[in-house]
Amino acid sequence: MNITILGAGAMGSLFGGLLAESGQQVTLLDINDAHLAAIQRDGLLLATDHGERRIRGLNACRPEQASGHPELLLVFTKTLHTDSALRSVAGHIAGHTRVLTLQNGLGNAEALSRHVAPQQVLIGMTNWPADLLGPGQVHSHGQGMVRVLALDEAERQASAEVAAVLDAAGLNCAVDPEVWTSIWKKVAFNAALNSLCAATGCTVGQLGAAPEGVALARAIVMEVVAVAGSQGIVLDAQRCLDSVAFAMDNHRGHKPSMLQDVLAGRPTEIGAINGQVVARAREAGVAVPHTETLLGLLRLIEQRAAV
Question: Which parts of the sequence belong to the Ketopantoate reductase C-terminal domain (predicted)?
Answer without folding.
Answer: 179-302
